[in-house]
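Hi P.,

Sorry for the delay on this. The queue was packed all week, but I finally got your sequence through. Input first:
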Amino acid sequence: MARWWRSATNNLRTAVSSHSSSQPSSARYHTIQAIPRECVGNRVSSRDRAQGRIPAVVISQHLLQKDSTAPRSMSRKHLVTTEWKQIQAILKSVELPFFCSTTFPLQIRAGSGSSHLIESGTIHRDEATGKVLNLVFVWADDGSELKVDVPVVFKGEDVCPGLQKGGHLNRVRTRLKYLCPAELIPPKIEVDVSNLDIGDRIFMHDVEVHPSLKLLSKNENMPICKIVATKWENPEPASL
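Then the structure:
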């Protein structure tokens, strides 16, 4: 088993190092290698982490929906273990904020092995150290729709008129939730602030995305960001 882990890690490192930076981030795929696990519990998870592995679970999107009427036969849940070195190699090329909105193929090796297309879900970290404690993945079959929190990235700050006048960029929303087809999940949403002046703002409904994406917000008129004037406190008069 240790030999297989080493082989999988080397293959992943080769794929990462040979990956072309000219490709769009949405097309960057890295295969995550995993093995099944049967035992659960804090002691088992602590032992896995001490040995350089990360406990993970792969679930169907039907299990995430409280009102789901899908039969039990359609639900899928697999307990697996990944290797920390593999995840660390991925995080060097796919930054952590975008890890949860990027799709990855997952290869589960058990006997003859099998391959499944997985959509990355949530990533749980230790708040103190930032170390990855466990991973949760969601099945992303083509044609299915998933609720995804997509990170917002602001660009054009270096030429923004409002910021050049001394204003401040108030990032009201750093993530937007969409209902996305599995094959069209965007790793990030770019918001251009290069033309904003002091007092200007960009609203949720201003963001252009693929027409198949549905924004999940009760109020699309909420701002994503705005340029506000810097408030300077009046200095106390010097005592004579």
